[in-house]
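A reminder before we start the practical. When you read a complex entry, don't treat the lines as separate problems. The point of joint prediction is that each chain is placed relative to the others, so the output describes one connected object in space. Small molecules and nucleic acid strands, if listed, are placed in the same frame. In the example below there are two entries. Take a minute to note the order of the lines before looking further.
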Amino acid sequence: GAGVSQSPSNKVTEKGKDVELRCDPISGHTALYWYRQRLGQGLEFLIYFQGNSAPDKSGLPSDRFSAERTGESVSTLTIQRTQQEDSAVYLCASSAFQGKGQPQHFGDGTRLSIL
Amino acid sequence: TQLLEQSPQFLSIQEGENLTVYCNSSSVFSSLQWYRQEPGEGPVLLVTVVTGGEVKKLKRLTFQFGDARKDSSLHITAAQPGDTGLYLCAGADPGGYNKLIFGAGTRLAVHP
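Here is the predicted structure of the whole assembly.
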């Protein structure tokens, strides 16, 4: 497809389990961002990838969160030992490059619910 | 920590009315973007403003970036029910990487 694709669209899991969220950016986009949106709130930055490297991980809330990107395309966000406060919508965005004013194109997100 | 305060949080108006949404910060941004988000979907970009004092128009929507690049406004003229949704402003961190700092959003409901 032409847009950013995220999977799964919904994930329900038990507290303490690990989860893996996937993002397929727009083809050719070198910059990739992960954000988190809690219910009724704006988006919080988590991590930024330029190509396969992550020069800014400042938004990751704890060491339970990690992300990687391979082949300058697909990225996965992994949350280990999930907690109830991890419940949120996780959104991925990509842009052609990270220059000033470059628009970010968002996927529809993964809605994560921790029981 | 950069913060972007967005107001009002909720807005319920009748069709045909005008409205303004505000985004304010004490920090300078290299650019500011406005998004609209529908339930169950990701934000969709409406406009990007880059230059202080810049004004952009998109049909009935007018976007303005403050002279000091710390604040922005979105004005909708003659609102329509199709304008209903969550409006988000987002400032690009001038420190690099173009990561976005989002406001909490304005939830707009336009009633026929």
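Discuss with your neighbour: Residues 31 and 50 of chain B are 4 Å apart (CA to CA). What might explain this?
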